Amino acid sequence: MLAVADPISSVLGIKASDPLSLMAAVEHGLPLAALDRVVHAVAPADNKFAFRIVTRSTLARRRKTWAAAKQDTASRLSAEEGTRLARLASVWTMAVSVWGDEAAARRFMFEAHPLLQGRRPVDVVLENELGRPVVEGILGRLQYGSAV
């Protein structure tokens, strides 16, 4: 049986076989490539979506540092940014599993939902950690055929 971290790690493009190693990777600082992978998967047509996770100026500075010195810790995401990204990757992974393909999962993530008081699931997830279980609850009910 696969550990919970495996599908999330795959979306992030990192090696973490269990939740504790995923936590350690986030604390150490996820690479910018993880941000690029998740952004491309979740919002491929939105070239500003990454700024929902890292501010524009910070991301530009980190990309410049990364290009100049590769492997510099300044070119990694902070623990807070990495946590936000991993949270999004976790819900994205579940949405793709429930809906069966990325296009349907994307529609779910970016359309207002009545159980979220008309808010979009992606916004609820990115707002703070408390939003993730709410969206996962909706996905769980969809997965198991309950009314949503």
Write out key terms for the chains shown:
148 residues; mainly alpha
Structural class, by secondary structure, is mainly alpha
**What fraction strand?**
under 5%
Q: What's the total helix number? A: 8
What Rg is obtained from the alpha carbons, in whole angstroms? 15 Å
Question: Can you describe what's shown?
Answer:
- The structure is a single chain.
- The chain has one domain (5-143).
- The mean pLDDT is 90.
- The radius of gyration is 15 Å and the shape is globular.
- It is built from eight helices and no strands.
- It has helices at 5-12, 19-28, 32-42, 56-69, 79-99, 102-110, 121-127, 131-143.
- Helix 3 runs parallel beside helix 5 (79-99).
- Helix content is 63%, strand content 0%.
- With 148 residues, the chain is mainly α.
- Pfam families: Xre_MbcA_ParS_C.
- InterPro entries: Antitox_Xre, Xre/MbcA/ParS-like_toxin-bd.
- Residues 95-145 form the Antitoxin Xre/MbcA/ParS-like toxin-binding domain.
- It comes from Acidocella aquatica.
- This is Antitoxin.
Short summary of the structure?
With 148 residues, this protein is mainly α. The chain has helices at residues 5-12, 19-28, 32-42, 56-69, 79-99, 102-110, 121-127, 131-143. The protein is globular.
